[in-house]
Amino acid sequence: MTVGCAVVVDATGEEHRMLLDQCCSFDRLMAFVPGILSKCRPDKAHIQQWYIDRGQFDFIIDDGTNMTQLTRESDIWSTIEPGTKIIMRVITTEVARRLSASYQCHCGKWNRVKINEVAVVNALKDGFTIIW
Prior knowledge:
The structure is a single chain. The protein is α+β, with helices and mostly antiparallel strands. The chain folds into two domains: about 90 residues, Roll (Ubiquitin-like (UB roll)); about 35 residues, no CATH class. Helix content is about 25%, strand content about 30%.
C-alpha cells in the first residue's frame, strides 16, 4: 500500500488505489469515477455506469466491523485515512411475480411494496425500476 492512499472498491469488487486527495469528498471521488471505470472490463464498466447514471449507488466504508455510509454531505470524507477501503455499491430493485415488488434497504432487510399492473409493466420496460 502506498502511503497517502485509500482503496476504492468498485461495485464489481475490483480494487483501485486512490490518493487521499481524490477521496476527500463525494464530488471529488465522483470526478475520478470515469477513470476507475476505464480500468474495468467494458461489460463491468457499462453496468456500473448504468446504475451511476440513475443515481442508484452509494459509497460506504467497511472496516470489517462497522459499515458507515458516505453521503454527499457527510463530514467523514475529510477524515479518511491511508488504507481506508471505500466501497461503491449499486442499489437494485427487484420486480417479483404476482404484482408485488421487493427492495433491499441499506441495512440488508428486504421490504415488500404493493404495486399495480401498470407499474409492473413499466418497470419491466424501464429496466426493473419502479418509482412511486
